[in-house]
Structures are given as C-alpha cells and as structure tokens.
Amino acid sequence: MDEVTISEQDRRQLGLWAADCVERALPLFEAKAPSDPRPREAIEGIRTFVREGKRTAQLRSLAWAAHAAAREVDDPAATAAARAACHAAATPYIHPLATPHQSKHVLGPAVYGALGHELAAADDAGSADGEIRWAIEHAPPEVRALLRRMPARKPGRSRLDTLYYELDAALRR
Fold first, then answer.
1. Tens of pLDDT, residues 110-155
2. SS3 state of residue 157
3. Contact by Cβ (8 Å): 91, 106
4. How many CB atoms lie within 10 A of CB 8?
5. CA–CA dist 105, 116 (Å, integer)
6. What is the pTM of this model?
7. Where are the alpha helices (DSSP H) in the chain?
C-alpha cells in the first residue's frame, strides 16, 4: 500500500475547511436536537486543533460523541449533519495511506453536510449541489493537494457515492 505525506499544515487546513463545511449544516441537527451539544462540541474541538495543532484523546472522544448523536437523532438530515461533525473532528487522524477509504475521510465532512441539506430540502438535489459548490470554492490548496495524492473516487451507485465522486473530481482540477 502506497503512503502519502500528510504535514501538520495539511491536517490543520483540512480541519479548518472541514469545520467550515460542517458549520453550514449544523443548524439542521440543532433544529431537531437543540439540547444536544455533541456535534457543535466536535466542531469546537477541531477548531481548537487548528489553532493549537495537537491531536488529543479529547478530540477523538468528541468525534465519537458526534457519531453517537447521529445514531440517536430521529431525522435523516440531522443525522447527516452530526455525521459531518464526526468526520470533521476525525480529520486530524487520517492515515497517510493512498486509499479510497482515506480520501473518504478528507471529503466526508463536506459530503455529509451537503447530504444533510438535500435531505432537509425533501431530497432536492440542488441544495446538495450548492453545498458541494461552496466546499469546492472554499477548499484550500493544501486540501486539494492532499486529495490528489490519493486514488480518485469512483462514481458508485448511491446518492452519497455520487456526492463523494463529484466533490473528489472537482477538487482534483
């Protein structure tokens, strides 16, 4: 298995971009579970990592807590938003492996955030497409360069696969 180089600057830029993408979807979760702070705490955790550059056990715990929140909320759009927060908090832990699985970790925060918007808009694909465009326009060069070191994603069959593929392809240009 080929390895890729992931610098601390790459990890911080990825974390910042991921947090910015998820912030746009977080209201979808908070509208359905206003007393559950776990996804927002995960975003605060990744922003702390961006400022301080330390991967801590606390950050990993925040990611798992957002994942648990996704399982517990009874709304598909809110679930997607919480999953986006989980993926964002986990970005500093991606492995330096050139695999499609690792590229999924790079793209997951933006993709799940976009999916959340689509689900909230009664499966209107235009809302997800708009979020994907936003993610593309705001992706820093470090994120694009990191993704280019990994294998390109394939189209797949599901809507989620399609969103991963579209974001991946656009960030490689």
1. 999 999 999 999 988 899 999 999 999 999 999 999 999 999 999 9
2. coil
3. yes
4. 11
5. 17
6. 0.96
7. 8-23, 26-32, 38-52, 57-72, 76-90, 100-120, 125-138, 141-148, 159-171
